[in-house]
Amino acid sequence: MKSLSNLADRQDISRRLTQVSAADTARWGSMNVNQMVCHLDDSYKVALGEKHASPATSLIRRTLVKWVALQAPIRWAKGFPTRPEIEQGKGGTTPIAFRQDLASLLSTFDRFCDALPSPCVQHPIFGEMTAGNWMRWGYLHADHHLRQFGR
């Protein structure tokens, strides 16, 4: 399974992030590419404990949904709801300038990968996460949104 704890997988996501262009258009969803960059940046900051996202967890989400999202060999569904604090147009970081926002994401991504997120930080939907869970989620979340923009 792909994970940011694997150097080759980390390098793949990093390379794909650096290839994102301000001209990229979404294949699905309502975000533009700059909003997607800010959304990913916000999401990694939640995992690092630098940004708050309100919990929306339940027994089913902490067990079945978490297992399917992190372990099942399927791609994530399009349009899965996110928390308002990281949702564009609601509480997510407002894009400023594409290059600046991408630089922030790349920096946050590296810090996330280097820090091996603490199990003390809970995922707002999946609840308690091991460092391995966070690294798997970090790969899948970025991959999902990169595919959204053809990357």
Task: Present the secondary structure layout.
Layout: H1 7-19, H2 33-47, H3 59-71, H4 98-115, H5 131-148
How many structural domains in the coordinates? 1
Number of helices: 5
User: What is CATH's topology name?
Assistant: Four Helix Bundle (Hemerythrin (Met), subunit A)
Q: Please state the average pLDDT score.
A: 91
Residues in helix, %: 40-55%
Radius of gyration: 14 Å
CATH architectural grouping: Up-down Bundle
Q: Which structural class matches the secondary elements? A: mainly alpha
Strand content: under 5%
Main beta sheet strand tally, sense and closure: none
Q: Could you characterize the architecture of this molecule?
A:
This protein is mainly α and 151 residues long. The protein has helices at 7-19, 33-47, 59-71, 98-115, 131-148. The protein is globular and about 40 Å long. The model has no long low-confidence stretch (mean pLDDT 91).
